[in-house]
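Lab notebook, bench 4. Still working through the backlog of constructs that have no structural model yet. Next entry is a single chain of 91 residues. Request: give me the structure tokens for it.
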Amino acid sequence: MAGLEERIVALLDPMLDAWPRLARSTSWPPWPSSCRLSVIGELVGVPPEEREQFRELVRITNRASEVGATTADLEAADRAIEYQDAYSPTS
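Model written out:
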């Protein structure tokens, strides 16, 4: 965990710098989600070049917990979890 604060600040600084511009935009991205997933990705060891894929895997997994999730959603979540598990330090 040593040095984690510096890495998290380095991840979040560009997002925080962009906040005023994004807040004025009518089509700005889900900023809190991006921050949260960037930090989680850093913690579990997702390489920076795979962060977008990781975001998509989390989105697929979350969709399975929504009311009205289909069997296809559940099956997709199971596959996404297998990919996410590969990032775990204990894998």
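Notes after review: Residues 13 and 19 are 10 Å apart (CA to CA). The helical segments are 4-24, 31-44, 51-63, 71-85. Flag for follow-up if needed.
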